[in-house]
Amino acid sequence: MTVEGTCADGFAEVRAEFERNFAERGEVGGGVHVTLDGETVVDLWGGDAGGRAWTEDTITHVWSCTKGATALCAHVLASRGELDLDAPVVRYWPEFGQNGKADALVRHLLAHQAGLAAVREPVPPGGMGDWELMTGLLARQEPFWAPGTRHGYHALTFGHLVGEVVRRVSGLPLAEFFEKEVSGPLGLDFWLALPEDLEPLVAPTIPAERGGALPSVYAAAMGTPGSMQALLVGNSGGYVAASDTPAAHAAQYGSVGGMSNARGLAQMYRPLASGGEYNGVRLVDEAQVPVMSGVVSAGFDEMLLAPTRFSLGFAKAVGNLHLPAVERGALMSEDAFGHSGMGGSLGFADPGARMSFGYAMTRMGPGVGVNARGQSLVDAVYRSLGYRQAPNGVWFS
Which CATH number describes the domain made up of 3-396? Predict the structure, then answer.
């Protein structure tokens, strides 16, 4: 297997770990991309993309990394003064106030505090791709907890919740807003609804191997019928089974379904690692970046049944080396914020290091977030920057 691309002096360890992923950790195809002070220092790819070589332009499903793109859209509007993150959701989406949600704030949607982490009403086959259906279901649903009082990962509903606010404020569907304001100006390989003519670039997902320990959310889903976890897994309109089809790639979800690669992920976060601007494209004001990175939800996660930490729309590092590997989030620095995707993809910005990172692959790992392949690359980047690792796994300078 040949690794292609470039790697700057000082980051040879990243290339070595990427090659080890193929030789020792079961990598099939993927890429890693790193920027520092706005400049690309790592851009590597290799392996198989479904019977053909993984190339510079290959893209794949990055699962919940999509949430980072959706959250960014909300922050673009907030930075412009068009969206107040502390306002009630009903200011922008009046129908949302049904069944005890009149006082829910926009920030509750972003911080996984809305109490809508699963859908109670049956979702018909393919229903997750029906935007009006899903936003209607969520608008009239009673929350599982009073918004703002607890947090639990909104794995499949985050995108419809935040994306509908983006639509109501901007007048554009989420995917169109992202293309107009983010991916287009930055020239990203990143789509929230993939155009049909780009389907030949897609590397199909290889599901994780079965066996071994299950993440707590899946164990609860299997063992507790009717639970929030069981609704998450069993009431998605068959999304997971159909997620690797052209129809799913073309649909708009906002939580999942984003199609990108390591370059697209890292370059989306590149401006956020440099005060909100890159090469004349300003996504957000510099003052918005701390708003994006500051922790607002931390502790026991009602959905994942494990400790998590979130800022307004992004995942933060959790010192969780004591947890089984299938439960762990990405071990980054405290300055970093971004999002992983089921099976292992990851994108984040680290403003303290002025660094952004992206990793995408075709073979999924067994956990709910980053696995050993992606974490090995993150670790190599931080070591290359001279960072050290605390006993709980979090990196510091």
Answer: 3.40.710.10
